[in-house]
User: What shape does this take?
Amino acid sequence: MAELTYREAVAAGIAQEMRRDPNVVLIGEDVARAGGVFKATVGLLDEFGPERVRDTPISEQAILGAAMGAAMTGLRPIAEIMFSDFFAVCWDIVANEIAKTRYMTDGQVTLPLVIRSGNGGGSRFGAQHSQSVENWAMAVPGLKVVAPAYPADVKGLLAAAVRDEDPVLFFEQKSLYATKGEVPDGEHVVPLGKANVLRRGDDVTIAALALMVPRAMQAAEILEKEHGIRATVVDVRSLVPLDTQTILEEVAHTGRLVTVEENPRLCGWGAEIASIVAEELFWDLDGPIVRITTPHVPLAAADNLEDAQIPSVDKIVARVRELVD
Amino acid sequence: MAELTYREAVAAGIAQEMRRDPNVVLIGEDVARAGGVFKATVGLLDEFGPERVRDTPISEQAILGAAMGAAMTGLRPIAEIMFSDFFAVCWDIVANEIAKTRYMTDGQVTLPLVIRSGNGGGSRFGAQHSQSVENWAMAVPGLKVVAPAYPADVKGLLAAAVRDEDPVLFFEQKSLYATKGEVPDGEHVVPLGKANVLRRGDDVTIAALALMVPRAMQAAEILEKEHGIRATVVDVRSLVPLDTQTILEEVAHTGRLVTVEENPRLCGWGAEIASIVAEELFWDLDGPIVRITTPHVPLAAADNLEDAQIPSVDKIVARVRELVD
Amino acid sequence: MDAILTNTTAALREPRAAIDRETRLTLYRRMVECRYLEKRAHDLFLQNLIKGTSHLGLGQEAVAAGFGVAMRPTDYTFCTYRGHNHTLVRGVSMTKILGELMGNSSGLMRGKGGSMHLTSVEHHMMGSYAIVGAHLTIAAGAAWSARYRGTDQVAVCFFGDGATNIGTFHEALNLAVVWKLPVVFVCENNRYMEYTAIHEVTAVEHPAADRASAYGLEPILIDGNDVDVVYTTALRALDAARRGGGPSLIEAETYRHGGHSRADPGKYRPEDEVKEWLAKDPIPRYRQRLLDLGIDEETLVSIEAEAQRKVDEATEEARRAPPSDERIAFENVWADGGAAWRN
Amino acid sequence: MDAILTNTTAALREPRAAIDRETRLTLYRRMVECRYLEKRAHDLFLQNLIKGTSHLGLGQEAVAAGFGVAMRPTDYTFCTYRGHNHTLVRGVSMTKILGELMGNSSGLMRGKGGSMHLTSVEHHMMGSYAIVGAHLTIAAGAAWSARYRGTDQVAVCFFGDGATNIGTFHEALNLAVVWKLPVVFVCENNRYMEYTAIHEVTAVEHPAADRASAYGLEPILIDGNDVDVVYTTALRALDAARRGGGPSLIEAETYRHGGHSRADPGKYRPEDEVKEWLAKDPIPRYRQRLLDLGIDEETLVSIEAEAQRKVDEATEEARRAPPSDERIAFENVWADGGAAWRN
Ligand SMILES: Cc1ncc(C[n+]2csc(CCOP(=O)(O)OP(=O)(O)O)c2C)c(N)n1
Ligand SMILES: Cc1ncc(C[n+]2csc(CCOP(=O)(O)OP(=O)(O)O)c2C)c(N)n1
Ligand SMILES: [Mg+2]
Ligand SMILES: [Mg+2]
Assistant: This one.
């Protein structure tokens, strides 16, 4: 085990896969010479050379189009979209082309590619550089969607994403890049589609993703210590495929579900999980399903304003107490 | 009252507003000379001339950018995106620029504009020309979202959208264009944000949108006549603002909710409504919340395949029976 | 402009003599097969055996045939929804094409894609793309991959005049040049988008050729209704790409005989213009040239008869095929063959 | 290429004599104000009084000042995240700019937008845009509206070299020419995107000027570090647009003194290159020219002192301002002032 930052774990995961398979290549804006604007691809150009690690123009559609064309003809590209907000400038290639081509061709075309992107708020970048858009991807059939919270999962899930035969959107939470955690040495792969139960309690199940996971964990500790409420915390990790089995089991046990979403309220992943639980586990519920989300507004740039928007530990604690008391 | 087709109601709504306000203009691909590829803007060039009704190049980003720039400087543009699938090529202008600019500028910029688009399946156009993407829009704070089912609402809601000071995405269901209905003569405006209760029953509330509304109505008739199940049918009409009051009232009365969504399953509007009901009306529910959606797959082109995907009257009947029996 | 004209003229004259008889007959055969197949598709529409939409390349066969014959079997084709001809010339069976248009079990994708998405990876026909412009970037990616893998494959990407005004055109051209990719971009300028003339919405006269210099490329404007010109231009561009010379951008002037799609009678076009272009129909024109070159009419008639026979047979085969099993509508989202998004 | 050089040369020489003393002093004042304000912004970062990110235009002041002085008060500005200078030259108060960078209640948008989104509609400064390229289309729309409303307003749109490779550049330029819109597109070519040199990822040498002909426009490549050249070029382009001559595309060559954004020391740039461009710093260069033209140093010193005083005052005022009330984070999504998505 080594202690790595979240951003180092990105580079470690990519390097592990590039060493294994010469068809894995990496492209994106400033990913090569500069090692990425978030420094998450540092060292890769040096190790793998300019044919495999390539800087691109500011042409997100061409970046993803190139990745798709390469994937359908034998490569396993990893493409970076610098900020996930920029998916909006290349959404066609993602949602209409990459997501649908295998289906439309009745399986003739296989697209083993990964699109990594810096996602989420907390860095005071304002409304166009802070969005959590994993639900944009989740809403489109044909995309796998992953959003790790811890360095070990960054490396392991990224490796699994590269090995997967299907397109995977890999969301890296920008304000987690500097966080640290133990990461297994050597080959490390975490299968897609498995939620991670981080702690178990009897009173309530909290499902969270990415930046919301450490906050949910902190909230759970406070709830237990200060309020005697014992919470299960599920790190959802993978939105597609979704580990409904684990979630349903945990909710069945506690009888209560709270989702903690960084995305703005409407049509977030929490709504999907809530609807699944409300349909399949209705008779096991002991109370309403509660969603804690960023309110349905764009994110502000100023620190005190942004902090008032994104779910905080305090907000999670308060809302869970309302539900359980 | 005159009987108009859904497509004629589009032109009627636009014409009504263009007559009223000289700052209303219309742009899009083939909207002028050709009267639109769905013939929904026939006659407008003749009546209002080429300065107000303009054909554009195939440049969706420029179309919406132009609409935005015009709206922020005094016009009230209506822009057409021919198929709603093409929102993917201009999503940045919609989701990052149009949706957020008022907020980011702390209210300095007002964007009274309407984006109309042909949405949904049933026309055997295949996976890239048949999507229901109203949930893409609903997920982005700062956009109002409307999707009418009947010609009268087309005209009235379109008029309200043009008069609204905020950006409105107006989804026209392509396979409804040829359907007919009574439309009030003279000025006709239907306020945004009001659901329409089309029929009332005591057993179950069915919430539907666009093409799913007539199907839900047919299903409700069959349910009543053949199975003695009396359903309330709510035409949601407006996703943002969402008339949660009406929906909650109706569900409180019947104790059961079924949503019927044309969109693929994950993160559809039905999930959002389900999560609201599961949180706010939990204690009034008599049973699970059920969502009927197109499965989470792209749409096929062949008629028998597409028909097997999009919720049909039979499927609605069967699922409601399972729930209520 | 002068550069363009010179180029055209050069392409028009000089290399014609070099094409051998067999190749010429193949070019003719391909054009005739395309024409008959699409005429049949049109009839099947009228009989309501084809649902949805469809975009015919009637009149534009010389571009498809010229390239199809010039390309090697391992070269990649990327084309648009107007892609029946481009699919056929790569060797895909007529039955599978018609079957896909009819949307039944005999189709290339058993009805899942439809007429706008014909794809046959087996034939290196990497897809028909229905969002204007998207595939230019994808073709660049295939070219990048070909070079990375050390093959000598070239990607050829066909698109319309209207596609030259969308952002991806610009992004793809720039990237292809910067990375010096083996890709040939072919604009089939048929003068119209759906119902609007390209010149009404384009800043320059030649929507592709006049943009070439923006990417440091030579402007290449050719007569897209002369299959010899297309063929020789294609050979040159493919060869340049194969030898590491990077991409080309070719504008082929042509015309569609019918409307944009199934629903469109094409009435927005001036009668004179239509007449003028019908007179330039690439097929009778080439037929005459072959006769002038001393090929006997019988040979041509037998090519025509053979093409017709193939179309008739394919029609019967495709018509007889059963509908696709509905279960396939829920398959092959993922590489494991399934569509599960949950466990 | 020849056309470009001729043009530059013409712009460089002939009209310089025509600029009067007052205008020259204003140009100098504007540049100095920009420089001092941004230096202060940089200091405030180092003191951690500005959070998030910020992109300085240190070194690029001549472009902002030249245009700012040439534009009429009713003309529209659209610029990028690197927009402090463009905002200041339109008359926006320094306090409001610094306040927005600090994200408190004195800011232009009370901290809701941040440094990347400075906007002051009152000054026809229609926004700073943080998604590369998007605002080119929006500026075209404002120009369309100006013409439709029968005003003589012109929209001026500033963007970087990197923006010339994204799709919206192409779409906006084409539409603006086809609709003959009163919009001036100004590419500030500072040779770098974030950390990558523009020449490494661009098919042509001059990313904007070499693309002009793709839209039927004259290539205009100017010395963007010579404020006289910028000013006279701006006047000409604004005038042409106002008189119905349609859009222009201007490439102004310049250089940023620092890194791309707050976090970047700019070390990827060769030392020689940095040195060469520091020697071309538009401010000392213009100062010398003014002295050469006989303007006495005292006048310049007092302009400088006055600018410094204003910056100091604004800094104090902005620092003293209280944080914004958290409630504003949930306001002004809609025109009614609220954020309700349900009843
Ligand atoms: C991004 C996008 N915008 C609009 C359309 C609708 N559309 C389909 S074909 C077409 C015209 C294309 O014209 P052109 O590129 O000249 O090709 P042609 O049809 O003439 O072969 C349009 C506007 C689309 N499919 N994709
Ligand atoms: C669509 C998009 N892609 C990428 C970025 C990230 N980004 C911000 S500034 C920048 C470099 C822009 O370079 P240039 O256009 O030359 O402007 P400059 O910063 O030099 O003024 C990049 C890549 C972005 N904001 N938007
Ligand atoms: Mg065309
Ligand atoms: Mg730059």
